[in-house]
Amino acid sequence: MERDIRTVVKKEMKEIVIITFTKGHLLSSALLLGIFGFFIPYEQGDFFLRQTSTSLSLYIFLVPLLICSGLVADSFAGERERKTLESLLSTRISNTALFTGKVLAIFIYTYVFLIVMILASVVGANYYLWKAERWRWFFFNKLSVFALFVFTIPVILAGIAVGVFFSLKCRDLRTAFQFSRMGWFILCLPFIFGWLTFQLSWDFLIPGFYILFIMDGLLLAGGVRLFHRSKIVV
Question: CA 20 to 30 Å from 205, out of 78, 92, 93, 113?
Answer without folding.
Answer: 113
